[in-house]
Structure formats: structure tokens, C-alpha cells
Specification:
The protein is of the alpha+beta class. It is built from 22 helices and ten strands. The longest helix is centred in the first third of the chain and has 35 residues, at about 40-75. The protein is globular, with a radius of gyration of 26 Å.
């Protein structure tokens, strides 16, 4: 079946409404001053005056410390867009705070001699060096920006959910819907987490990385699971809740299904646990079907690689001190202790003890992947850099111009052009943070801005930027409507995308078919959804998902027709 068979006519899309609401709460510790105890009434009077002066100085010092942090955090908000103009200033403020308020000695190691053997067991030398820094870097600043983004994303994803299993499942679908799978390894680029989120595409491991970082904002531990002998498509995320490890497949964008599922659920609401899969190997075999041999097996899950995924700064003393000093309105998470700290046994101990030692035979280590990806993204040159720059340029649109200042030439009218407004970048950021209503409205206007008057002379680079922006806006419009629950309109938007751009980006085309099928199924159009997944040839990465969903939706449709 060709994609043209999937393109259908629908009624005009309806716009629904949703609001992303975020709340913030952290405790701040403010240290006081020591007082001397004089022996005379005169001394007491002097003490009173001195104490007042010391208290005033202390209060002023505390206020300055708070200002360092508040100003730096403000500069690193996701809404500040690409923050290139703010990152240096923010790093300067953070290091002023570190030296004057954070009790971080620039000349000493943050790790004690007794700690080093523990960390050397799980981290490489490069990771330890980054973790041991006592001053903040530009990479740290970008991590703080990303943490604020992930905090907003997780709050948008879990709104209305009543328990942790519902929350982690909703967060998984939110992440997978926002970040389409790059099914071809040649299309995978070295990107920062921020770039992955904005561009809305990544490898399975990049998608897993974002999901794990989102969960860290709920102070929930999650790890990447790989077989001892790595292979394509053999990748799962394990989320640690109570004494269970819930399994999610970032390749397919679906949870591993537990045996018990609601008969009428369009997608998988109940993820299976590791214990359930080890007890019932049929869970994976039934889910992966004919592709089971090319996916994770129960046998491989008995002794997997367990990879703690995060940037080295996330385990550092400087991030712990900074998080402890955040204000009440700054509730994003910056730190997770790997080792025991103040009664918390730590991430590694959590893995070793969960489920009565279900991971006792697993190889546990802290993945070098995030640090290496960050380093690679900062070191891109040549054609690869041009490729990434080109992809990002669409998000700088539109470029404004003043038609009132037009001048006529023999070739047409010329106008003065302004600086790119980065409107699409702002819109995509708002969408990630949960404001679908604002994003949808902006995407509609972005599509209209692709056109120019026929007699206007438009620089080629500007015209291309606007065309690329319209392409992105058409796709993300469907994503916004899908996340908003307006499934009929989302199906229409993805259908429009396939009609207008079916040859422009093969990865996006597959993602549009996938989400269009989800939208149709969720709006009760099971036959259309079945056609989309049943008669479209999926890429190798997604092969198990299409027949699984087709059978699931056929069963729901057939059961409904019998009532």
C-alpha cells in the first residue's frame, strides 16, 4: 500500500483547549549568626547593637546569595530560547554563588578519599573528572536549562493521573509522541537533549534518555536495559516503583504489555514488570510476534546490562549544593545521589536491592553515553554541522519585513528584512511545556507565513527557512491536537502532512502515519486505523508494533460490533 492510499479528506479541524499548569515548591535553608555572651549590661547593649548589625549583614548576604541563584535560573529558563547570550552570564553568577555562598572550595576535590573507590567502580575517569568539578561550566548551565524543561514536560504529561504507574506511563507516551523515532541509524545526529526535544526526533536511546530525565523530575529512578551482547532494537527502559521494575520499549514507543489489559484500551495502559516477564516468557513473544528473535528475550533479561543514564554533573556535589539552595518556586530537580547520603541509600543500592535482588546478576554501571553525546554535539564540524544548522534554522522563522518601506525595481519589490524572530522555537517550547492551545494557534499562522507576494524579491535563505517552518508546523500541529485529545483534528492534520510533504522526510512520514493511526483509533475510527498499520510497510525498527496494534484494534472493533 502506498502513502497516497492513506491520505483522506476530513472536515476542518476543531481546536480544543488545555492548559499546562505548573506548581513549584522547595525548601531554602538560611543560616544564622553566632552570638557572643558578654558579662555586663554595657556589653549587653553593645551585643544588642552588634547582633543587629551582624543580623543585617547576614540578611544582606543571604539576599545576595539568593539573587545569584534567582538571576541565573531566570537566564536559564527554557523560554529564553537558545540562551546563547545568557549562558556565560549565568555561569558567572553560579560561580560567584559557589565561591561566596555555596561553600565549594575551588582548589579541593569534592570527593573524599573514602568515596573514590565506590565511584571508580561505576564511572570512568572522564565521568569522575566532570563530576568532581567544584565550579560550574557552560554544560552545567545547559543541564540546568534542560532540567527546567523536563520539569515542565513531566508536569504537563501527568496532569490528572492518580498513581505512579499511571504517571510514568503517561510520561512515556508524552515523550514518545513529542519525539519521533529515527528508524534509520544514518539519520541519527549527535544532539543535546534540548535539541532532541525541539527538533522532535531521535534514536531509541535518545528518546529513552529524555524519558529517564523527565522521570528524574519526579524523583523516580529509571534505567536503560541492554542485553549483555548488544544488538539493534534490543533496548528497554526499566522504571523503578516500589519493589517493581516496569518495562517500556523506546524503539516502538509502547510499554511492554502486562497480561491484564482493559479490553477496550486503544493503547497499552498497564506496563508489565520485569518480574512478570521473567515468570511468563510468552509476554515478550506475544508482543514482538514474528520479530521476537530480533528483540529482547526473557533469557537476556535475566542478566542484562543496567545503565544509569545521566550527565556526570547530575551526581555532583556542586549540583547537590545548588539544588539545596533553590527557592520555593524552583522545584526542578538537579541532583541524584549514587551512593548513600543522609539516609537515602542511593541509586545504585536501589538497583541492587529492588524486587528482592531481581537484578543481582546484572551488570550495573553509569552510562558514558550522555556525556559523549554532549561532547559530540559540541564538536560537530563540516557537513554534519551544516546539516544540524539547517534543521534548526526552521525554528528561527519567521523573518519580518516592512511592506510600507518597499521599493520597486525592474525585477520586483525589495524590502528591508529584520532579524529572525524565532517564533517557531518559542511555539515548540510552549508545546513541550504543555501549552497546546497556544502552540496550535501559532502553528496555524506559521503555515500561512510560508507564502510571500509574488512580486516581492525574497532572499533564497529566507524563503527556504519559511518553507521548512511550514513543514515543521504542519507536523507539530497534529502532535498538539493529539496531545490535547482532539483526535479527529489530529488525524486531519497528519493527513494534511502526508498529502503535502509525503516525500520530504521519510522518518516524519512514518511518524505521521503512526500518530494518525493512534488518532483514528482513539476517535473510534478503527477501520481507518487498521488500514494505516495493516497495509503500510513499516521500517524494520517498527515491525512488531504494526501487527500488534492491528490485532488489538481489530479485537476492539469486532467486540464493539457484537454489542
Amino acid at each position: 500500500m502506498t502513502l497516497s492510499n492513506l491520505i483522506r479528506r476530513h472536515s476542518a479541524p476543531r481546536l480544543g483547549m488545555i492548559s499546562g499548569v505548573f506548581c513549584f515548591a522547595l525548601l531554602i535553608f538560611i543560616s544564622g549568626c553566632k552570638e557572643q555572651t558578654p558579662s555586663s549590661s554595657t556589653a549587653n547593649k553593645e551585643k544588642s547593637q552588634g547582633t543587629a548589625g551582624n543580623s543585617s549583614a547576614s540578611s544582606q548576604g543571604d539576599h545576595e546569595c539568593e539573587n545569584y541563584i534567582d538571576n541565573a535560573m531566570s537566564m536559564l529558563e527554557p523560554e529564553r530560547l537558545e540562551i546563547s547570550s545568557f549562558v556565560g552570564r549565568a555561569v558567572g553568577l553560579l560561580n560567584q554563588w559557589a565561591s561566596q555562598c555555596g561553600n565549594l572550595n575551588a582548589d579541593a576535590s569534592s570527593l573524599t578519599d573514602s568515596q573514590k573507590p565506590f565511584f571508580k567502580k561505576y564511572l570512568g575517569e572522564a565521568q569522575l573528572a566532570k563530576m568532581d568539578l567544584t565550579r560550574f561550566t557552560e554544560s552545567d548551565a545547559k543541564f540546568i536549562r534542560d532540567s527546567q524543561l523536563f520539569n515542565g514536560m513531566i508536569n504537563a504529561a501527568i496532569e490528572g493521573k492518580s498513581n505512579d504507574v499511571e504517571r510514568v506511563t503517561a510520561a512515556f507516551y508524552y515523550c514518545m509522541s513529542n519525539i519521533a523515532l529515527n528508524t534509520n541509524q544514518q539519520n541519527v545526529l549527535p544532539l543535546t537533549p534540548y535539541e532532541i526535544c525541539i527538533l522532535g526526533a531521535g534514536s531509541a536511546e535518545q528518546r529513552a534518555w529524555i524519558y529517564i530525565d523527565m522521570l528524574r523530575q519526579l524523583r523516580l529512578d529509571a534505567v536503560l536495559l541492554k542485553p549483555a551482547k548488544e544488538a539493534p532494537y534490543k533496548l528497554l527502559v526499566g522504571v523503578l516503583l516500589n519493589e517493581d521494575i516496569y518495562l517500556f520499549d523506546p524503539v516502538l514507543g509502547l510499554p511492554i504489555p502486562a497480561k491484564d489489559q482493559p479490553v477496550d484500551a486503544v493503547l497499552i495502559p498497564n506496563p508489565a514488570t520485569l518480574a512478570e516477564v521473567l515468570k511468563s516468557p510468552a509476554i515478550l513473544k506475544d508482543f514482538y510476534g514474528e520479530e521476537a528473535a530480533n528483540r529482547f528475550s526473557t533469557e537476556e533479561l535475566k542478566a542484562p546490562q543496567v545503565l544509569i543514564t545521566g550527565r556526570s554533573c547530575e551526581w555532583s556535589t556542586r549540583m547537590r549544593h545548588l539544588e539545596d539552595s533553590l527557592s520555593r518556586k524552583q522545584t526542578f530537580v538537579l541532583y541524584r545521589n549514587l551512593e548513600e547520603f543522609k539516609g537515602d541509600p542511593g541509586f545504585i543500592s536501589h538497583l541492587q536491592t529492588i524486587g528482592k535482588g531481581i537484578l543481582k546478576d546484572a551488570e550495573i554501571k553509569v552510562s558514558e553515553y550522555p556525556d559523549k553525546e554532549i561532547d559530540a554535539s559540541e564538536a560537530v564540524t563540516g557537513d554534519l554541522k551544516k546539516r544540524i544548522t539547517s534543521l534548526k534554522s526552521a525554528f528561527h522563522a519567521p523573518v519580518p519585513y516592512d511592506v510600507k518601506l518597499r521599493k520597486e525595481t525592474p525585477e520586483g519589490f525589495i524590502v528591508p528584512w529584520g532579524a529572525p524572530t524565532k517564533k517557531l522555537l518559542k511555539t515548540r517550547t510552549a508545546q513541550l511545556l504543555g501549552d497546546q492551545t497556544e502552540a496550535i494557534s501559532s502553528y496555524v499562522t506559521t503555515r500561512l507565513e510560508a507564502g510571500f507576494p509574488s512580486d516581492l524579491i525574497v532572499p533564497q535563505e529566507t524563503r527556504l527557512m519559511h518553507l521548512m517552518a511550514a513543514h515543521e508546523a504542519t507536523y507539530f500541529l497534529g502532535v498538539g491536537q493529539y496531545l490535547q485529545g482532539d483526535y479527529a483534528s489530529a488525524s486531519q492534520a497528519f493527513n494534511d502532512y502526508l498529502r503535502l510533504y509525503h516525500g520530504a522526510n521519510q522518518e516524519r512520514t512514518i511518524a505521521a502515519v503512526y500518530l494518525m493511526a493512534f488518532s483514528d483509533a482513539k476517535s473510534g475510527k478503527y477501520s481507518s486505523a487498521i488500514v494505516a498499520v495493516g497495509e503500510t510497510k513499516p521500517p524494520a525498527a517498527l515491525k512488531p508494533a504494526f501487527p500488534y496494534l492491528e490485532q488489538r484494534w481489530r479485537t476492539i472493533r469486532d467486540n464493539a460490533s457484537k454489542k
